[in-house]
Amino acid sequence: MFNLYKANMARLFKKSFYIFGLVVAVIVTYAFTSNMVELPFLAEAKPADIMIFVSAAMIAFFTIFVPIFTNSEYTDGVIRNKMIAGISQKEIYISHLLTELSAAVIMWVCYIFGGIIGGARLNSNYIIANVVILFALFNYIATVLVVAFRLKKIVAVMIIEAFIFNMCFNSVMMGNLFLTLTKDGVQRVMSWLYNVSALGQWFTKTGFADEVANPGVKAQVLISFVIIIVMTFIGTFRLNKRDLV
Fold first, then answer.
1. Among 58, 81, 130, 187, which residue has the least CB neighbours within 10 Å?
2. What whole-number distance in Å separates Cα of residue 93 and Cα of residue 198?
């Protein structure tokens, strides 16, 4: 497993699209937090708040990157060769998940660096908010990887994952409405459901969602962990019985 992970990490840094994404993470975060590029609706916001707003770009990036990175192993015949070498599809899947989570951590560090040099002052509240966003990104990657690894046609994967991204966005838009119409226990349940989506957790940290949408940091991290576990189970269920044709 560790050798698979090392091989994947080596392949990761040969992907020009990923390297480009790291560079963009630094430059774009710096440009917005330093007010080199201004967002009119965030004109009065602190650099750290602008930085959190920009973090949504990482979710969008991995919507595209996960299928590109995963499905290239189908087109290059790498998965078939690994299976011939006696490696199970489940081991390949887990190694991909660990690699793409590592890719998210590296990009997150680049994003943090860009924000700091752009003038963002990260006190404990902002650090916690960014950690929540990182775990939300983890749960999103675990979700889209299920699709990317099960389907061999990258066009189909890209369409489905674009649908997932839009579904996440629309769910939090509708969630904002429903949360204003509910009270007490129902509202509490709704706030947890709202945070199942990575974009839901992102909205609670940007200030665009009402405070009732935030079930708390511990709850958000717990939700992300549960989603990662559930999606990994779904992604690996009976996977070794699948034939690659």
1. 81
2. 21
Retrieve residue 71's tokens: 């499905």
Instruction: Read off the pLDDT band of 242 (50, 70, 90).
Output: low
Q: What pLDDT is recorded for position 234? A: 94
In whole angstroms, what is the distance from residue 133 CA to residue 126 CA? Answer: 11
> Is 97 buried (19+), middle (13-18) or exposed (0-12) by CB count in 10 A?
buried
- Check pLDDT > 80 for residue 54: yes
pLDDT-above-70 percentage for the chain: 95
CA distance 176 to 125: 23
Q: Round the average pLDDT of the chain to a whole number and report it.
A: 88
How far apart CA 200 and CA 194 sit, in angstroms, is: 6
83 Cβ neighbours under 8 A, 6+ residues apart: 89, 92, 244
The pTM is what? 0.90
Q: Is 171 helix (H, G, I), strand (E, B) or coil?
A: helix
Check: CB of residue 107 under 8 Å from CB of residue 29: no
Q: Which residue's entry shows tokens 């560079």?
A: 23
The torsion of the CA quartet 41, 43, 48, 49, rounded to 10 degrees, works out to -30
Own/partner long-range contacts of 81-89 (Cβ < 8 Å, ≥24 apart): 82/4, 83/244, 87/4, 88/240, 89/239, 89/240, 89/242
Q: Which residues of 203-224 are buried (b: 16+ CB within 10 A; e: fewer)?
A: bbbbeebeebbbbebebbbebb
